[in-house]
Amino acid sequence: MSLCLADGYCLDTLGPFFGTQNDASITNHITKTKNALMEWCEPGDIMIVDRGFRDIVEAFSDLGYEPKMPIYLTKGQKQHTTNEANEARLVTKVRWTVESYHARLKKWRFFSDRIENQLLPKLQDCVRIVSATLNWLRGSIIKDHNTNHMDRLAKLMTDRLAKHNYLATLVEQGKLSTKQRWKKIDEIDFDFPEMELEDLRQLFFGSYQIKQSQTYAEEHLDVNGDFAIQVSKETDEIIRCAIQSRHSNSTRYYAWIQFSLTGDPITSWYCQCKSSARTVGACAHEATIIWFLSYARHHDFQYSNGRRRIQRSIEKIQSDEDEPDDSNEFSAT
């Protein structure tokens, strides 16, 4: 288990622990036995944790800290509220540096493979030596954390916390859900604002979803290289797209995007997935649609080489299966 600062600088790495111990039991052990934690942290400090720490949240609060953790869906709840989803996005925006630090650690050959049992007594020393080496040679993960850009990004995110999700309200009221309100995109003239990558990074508060968008978009393009998009009959500034879940082939969500050709390019978005009533950033479904329509199609978007090879292989197999099999034909003499 690692204790990292928000910029990715590792304060300490503790362990090893038994595989049967979860994050909460490990942290509970640390808070009771590790005095250094009390020396490093002050009352009121914010502890960013993942959902595995749900059983230790009260212990952190009792110690005077302010724990922040993504919220679980309650029983029967299908989607987080806008406030819950926004708070969760703030947590993940900060906590990704911990995952990035662990990825750095596992790039060392010693930690990238199975570790023999006889090395377990020395494992903690090895991990702490490598952690110190990473801090010394590579420094923090976020290099520009004290810049005006990061300050501006943080302000944009906090400003959007209280923003009302207009499209979510319309969907909940049933004003955007009926089939009669939509036309397919090929039935009318359609314009969508063109955006640059930097604009998209600012809209999504980072580049993670942009990196995912190409692969995800390829899975949803039809034979003509287009999304199956519908436009509202009542206004040409709201579109709807059915898009498959990233985690389940049998699950499909509708995503709505509201845009403007004169003001802010993207004014509102909403998706039926569990976290996308949020206004701080967008989910992968919304981000893929926005990225493709505003950027990719204007920059000669092409399938990746790997996907093209797979597609050609499948087409070849299908064409071979369609050819008549004359291996059983013979002529009698």
Structure write-up:
- The chain has 333 residues and is an alpha+beta fold.
- The protein folds into 2 domains: 2-156, no CATH class; 164-305, no CATH class.
- The chain is built from 11 helices and 9 strands.
- It has helices spanning 23-33, 35-40, 57-62, 82-106, 120-137, 148-160, 166-172, 197-204, 208-218, 284-294, 305-322; strands at residues 2-4, 10-13, 46-48, 66-68, 182-184, 229-232, 238-244, 252-259, 266-271.
- The strands form 3 sheets. A 5-stranded antiparallel beta sheet has the order 5-6-7-8-9, with helices on both faces. A two-stranded antiparallel sheet has the order 1-2. It has a two-stranded parallel ribbon with strand order 3-4.
- α9 (208-218) crosses α10 (284-294).
- The chain is elongated, with a radius of gyration of 25 Å.
- The protein starts with a strand and ends in an 11-residue tail after the last helix.
